[in-house]
Every structure is written in C-alpha cells, then in structure tokens.
C-alpha cells in the first residue's frame, strides 16, 4: 500500500477569483437553500445534487498512487473544475471550453519530442498511459492551483518522460506547443492569440517532481475543457504556464518564446512564479478567494510560490524575482 504524506493544509492558491464567479446565481441558490434563507428563490432552484455533477463521465485510470506531495486540502468540486476554465482555443469565456469541448478529438494523439536530445521521436498518448500505469508511476497529485482551486490531478512527473528522450547538456529549456486545428479548437478561428499556444520551462523546473503531465482528474481521463488528453501542471506558477492539449515538446539551448510573455511582456513574465509582492499591472495579487468557496468566505493571503516555497525556492536562489517575474 502506498504511504500518503500530506503537505500542510494551509497551502493557498494565488489568483483572485472574479467576484461574479463566487456570487454566481447557482451557488447562491444552493447556499440559500442550505441556510434556509431566500426561500422564494431557493424554491425555484434545482436540488444541490442536480447542480453538482461529479465524476463518472470518463473512463477511470487504474493503479493511481497518491503522491507524497499532495495537499490535504479538500478538493474543489468536479463541477467547478470542469465548467470554469481558461482555454482560449475553445473560447475566451470561462464557460466556453465546457460548451465547445465536444469538437476536440483526443484519440489518436501523438506528441513530437525533438531538439537537444539523443532520442528524438514521436510517442502516442496510449503508449504513455500504458507505460506509466504498468510501472505504477501514475500519481494523484492534489495541489492548490493558481486558478484558486484544489484539483486532484492524475498524471506523472514530466521529468520521467523527458528522461526517455535523453536530453543533452545543451538542453537548458523545454518548450511546449498546443494542438493547432480550428476545426477541433474553434477558438483558434479568432486571432485573440498568436496560435499555436506556446509555453516553456527551465530544465530544472521541468525536472522537478512537482511538475507533472496530467492525463486525468478525480481518477478519470481528462475532459477536453481541462486540456485533454495531456497537459502540463506546475503548481507554484500561475495558470497560464500549464499548457493544455500538448502536441510538441522541444529541448532548447535558449529561452523559448512563450505566448503570453510575447504578447504582453509587461504583464506576463517567462517565469510566472506566484509572488504576492509583484502585482499584475491591473490588479493586486496579494489575496485570493477559492473558486467554489462559500459566498461568505473571506479572502486568504497569497503565499510565495503558491505555498510551495519549501519545495521550489532553491530553484531561484540569488535571482531577482521582481525582475524575473
């Protein structure tokens, strides 16, 4: 039996939840019914069980082992995780990805791996899942996302996959690209971003055990709106670093161009580390409120590196994190 070692329950996330989300009519109806207030409105609302559709829609992933790096915080409800998403390829509204994800075909799916490595090649998602499942290297990592959610991701350390392609000493960074296909990802028909979506990590960040490639959540295969069939998860960074629906991984000697830091460098840096001392030019990042929290819940202070400082602070020793934000 795997040993479960939980991190402290006080780990917070760092994004400020839009007030419209936590004051949504759906959540108000549910809480009003529970508290016995707003009876007139609550009487018109469906029961909470109908509003909160849980797992059970996608195939289960076998042999999942709890990660020793998991937090002990209560996971965000499945319904919130799968209906409040940032995935511009499926639309810019938070509910657009869930509405449009049916067009994304996740089988067959291949990832091209190339650049500064000894064994470049292409690997299919089924081969990846089979290999890591058989080796019992598929973990449930419950982590606080900078999306202000606690998500029970299922995946494996990115570094475990990268090692199979034998990166050379010239590999200083890892670059990623999302699928570009407007028929499957209708949001790409609009030029809101320079497609395909691109992201990157420094090599030591990529090899850190907290950095995972997620293929599922709640022990099931990922829904399309959450980045199926495979996406990056970097818990100590803001959400835009966690690129979805990956089709390309490239080892590079120089820092790769990334979508948001290229589009708006004053607002989005390459590193994207959660740092409450560095405000976004248009809003403060010192506090956050969890998505799915009670409408009466107070905000929580944002912690450095999203609460993962003990695990990752050494990666940035000696760096000016106001300059390299």
Features:
325 residues; Sulfite Oxidase, Chain A, domain 2; five-stranded mixed β-sheet; 11 helices; globular; disordered N terminus
Short summary of the structure?
With 325 residues, this protein is α+β, with helices and mostly antiparallel strands. It is built from eleven helices and 13 strands.
- Say how many strands there are: 13
How can the largest sheet be summarized? Answer: 6 strands, mixed
First-to-last CA distance: 41 Å
CATH hierarchy, class: Alpha Beta
Description:
It is a single chain. With 325 residues, the protein is an alpha+beta fold. The protein has a single domain, classed as Alpha-Beta Complex (Sulfite Oxidase, Chain A, domain 2). It is 19% helix and 19% strand. It is built from 11 helices and 13 strands. The strands form 3 sheets. Strands 1, 4, 5, 8, 9 and 10 form a 6-stranded mixed sheet that branches. The chain has a 5-stranded mixed sheet with strand order 3-2-11-6-7. A hairpin with a 2-residue loop joins β8 and β9. The longest helix has 11 residues. The protein is globular and about 50 Å long. The N terminus is likely disordered.
Topology:
Blueprint: H1 19-22, H2 25-35, H3 39-42, H4 48-51, E1 65-66, H5 78-83, H6 96-100, E2 110-115, E3 121-124, H7 125-134, E4 139-145, E5 149-157, H8 158-163, E6 173-178, E7 198-202, H9 203-206, E8 212-217, E9 220-221, E10 231-233, E11 246-252, H10 259-263, E12 287-288, E13 300-301, H11 309-312
Parallel strand pairs: 1-4, 2-11
Antiparallel strand pairs: 2-3, 4-5, 5-8, 6-7, 6-11, 8-9, 8-10, 12-13
């Amino acid at each position: 039996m795997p040993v479960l070692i939980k991190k402290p329950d006080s780990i917070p996330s760092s994004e400020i939840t839009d007030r419209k989300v936590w004051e949504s009519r759906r959540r108000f109806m549910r809480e009003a019914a529970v508290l016995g207030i707003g009876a007139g409105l609550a009487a018109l609302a469906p029961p909470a069980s109908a509003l909160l559709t849980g797992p059970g829609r996608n195939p289960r992933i076998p042999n999942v082992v709890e990660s020793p790096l998991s937090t002990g915080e209560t996971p965000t409800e499945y319904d919130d995780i799968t209906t409040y998403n940032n995935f511009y390829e499926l639309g810019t509204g938070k509910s657009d990805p869930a509405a449009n994800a049916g067009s994304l075909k996740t089988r067959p799916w291949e990832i091209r791996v190339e650049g500064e490595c000894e064994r470049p090649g292409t690997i299919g998602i089924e081969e990846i899942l089979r290999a890591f499942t058989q080796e019992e290297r598929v973990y449930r990592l419950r982590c606080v996302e900078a999306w202000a959610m606690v998500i029970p991701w299922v995946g494996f350390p990115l570094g475990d996959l990268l090692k199979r392609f034998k990166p050379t000493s010239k590999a200083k960074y890892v670059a990623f690209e999302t699928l570009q296909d407007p028929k499957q990802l209708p949001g790409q028909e609009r030029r809101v971003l320079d497609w395909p979506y691109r992201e990157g990590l420094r090599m030591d960040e990529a090899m850190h055990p907290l950095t995972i490639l997620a293929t599922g959540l709640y022990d099931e295969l990922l829904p399309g709106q959450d980045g199926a069939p495979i996406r990056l998860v970097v818990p100590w960074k803001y959400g835009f670093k966690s690129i979805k629906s990956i089709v390309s991984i490239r080892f590079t000697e120089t820092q790769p161009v990334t979508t948001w830091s290229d589009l708006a460098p004053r607002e989005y840096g390459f590193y994207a580390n959660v740092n409450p001392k560095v405000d976004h030019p248009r809003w403060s990042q010192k506090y956050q409120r969890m998505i799915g929290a009670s409408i009466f819940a107070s905000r929580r202070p944002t912690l450095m590196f999203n609460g993962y400082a003990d695990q990752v602070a050494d990666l940035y020793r000696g760096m000016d994190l106001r300059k390299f934000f």
